[in-house]
Amino acid sequence: MKKSPGLRVDLEIPENVNDVALTKTNLKGDWINFFLLLLLYTMQGLPLGISGAMSILLQSKKNVTYNDQAVYSITKWPFSLKLLWAPLVDALYVQKFGRRKSWLMPVQYLIGILFMYAASDIDNLLPETGKPNIKMLSYIFIMMNFLAATQDIVVDGWALTILKRNNVGYASTCNASGQTIGSM
Questions:
Q1: In sequence order, which residues have a C-beta less than 8 Å from that of residue 87 and are 6 or more positions away?
Q2: pLDDT per position as a tens digit, 119-135
Q3: Whole-model pTM?
């Protein structure tokens, strides 16, 4: 086997290795931030869980066609397409409120308003007898999931700065646990 004369691999470890990489994770001093992230991810999971339950409910209704179910399935798209507007969320903010709170507060208020609207009009959206208003349900849940996806962008970015550097790995635990709790 011939060695290539121009190929060389150095495996030297620099003298000033980042101490953070060598420290163990420890939530001491980060518990409040951990629970805040868990709460935010749980609130983000609520629209996802309700829209998922709604699709099961629509399937159980005999007067909902496959076409109606296909239209409603579009409500899942915002999470798949969030990478398209994520750069805007990271770049645009009001300096007075901060990069994350500029988006988090309006998103939470808008999700709440949409929940209140859906709750107040549930008899027209999903009547006991008759056909559900698929278009309006789809619009509401597309907006809710768009806002939840935007919140996911915000909270993912915030998790990197709110947790201590050696605890950033817990952000994914908060994300998975919170969204699961919220969707239940």
A1: none
A2: 999 999 999 888 999 99
A3: 0.81
Report whether pLDDT(85) > 90.
Answer: yes
Cβ neighbours of residue 115 under 8 Å, at least 6 residues apart?
Answer: 47, 144
Number of neighbours of residue 168 by Cβ within 10 angstroms:
16
Q: In terms of Cα–Cα distance, which of 125, 151, 120 is closest to 40?
A: 151
> Cα–Cα distances in Å, from 86 out to 14, 110, 140, 166?
35, 18, 21, 25
Distance of alpha carbon 94 from alpha carbon 136, whole angstroms: 32
Decide: 100 and 37 in contact? Cβ < 8 Å: no
At position 64, the amino acid (one-letter code) is V
Q: Which residue has the tokens 């749980």?
A: 42
CA distances from 60 to 70, 128, 132, 138, 142 (A): 14, 12, 12, 17, 21
Q: Alpha-carbon distance 142 to 77, whole Å?
A: 8
Rounded CA gap, 155 and 179, in Å?
Answer: 12
Provide the token pair at 159.
């998790």
Tokens (6 digits) for 160: 């990197």
